């Protein structure tokens, strides 16, 4: 069955991902939560983990990307972590980050080289 809401969401998520890639050159963008599982409702937000190099504090990174890329009518949770921070979180057994990496949907991964 054709679900127009899902198609619109996929297009919107793709558009947001392209803006992030163009403006911030991340290493990786991972969609997680209900949008990644395909169980979103009209009240769901978009959850993204963005892995990129940055000297800024995590909250400032997230705010900067949100201001530049989040449509006004969509609720989003944006986590921005450096590759080193991801590695550290995995080393201490961070279940949340592990779940995102294992079950999230990779929207973008920078090509090596």
Please tally the β strands and state the result.
4
Apparent shape: globular
Number of domains: 1
The sequence of SSEs as H and E is HEHEHEHHE
Mean model confidence by pLDDT: 90
Estimate percent helicity.
Answer: 40-55%
Number of helices: 5
Query: What share of residues are in beta strands?
Result: 15-25%
Structural class: alpha+beta
CATH superfamily: Beta Polymerase, domain 2
How are the elements arranged and paired?
Elements (H helix, E strand, L loop, with lengths): L3 H21 L3 E5 L1 H4 L8 E6 L6 H12 L6 E6 L1 H9 L3 H9 L1 E5 L4
Parallel strand pairs: 2-3
Antiparallel strand pairs: 1-2, 1-4
Labels describing this entry:
113 residues; alpha+beta; Beta Polymerase, domain 2; 5 helices; 4 strands; globular
What do these coordinates show?
This protein is of the alpha+beta class. The protein has a single domain (10-109), classed as Beta Polymerase, domain 2 (2-Layer Sandwich). It has helices at residues 4-24, 34-37, 58-69, 83-91, 95-103, and strands spanning 28-32, 46-51, 76-81, 105-109. The protein has a 4-stranded mixed sheet, sandwiched between helices. Helix 3 links the parallel strand 2 and strand 3. The longest helix is centred in the N-terminal third of the chain and has 21 residues, at 4-24. The termini are far apart. The relative contact order is 0.21.
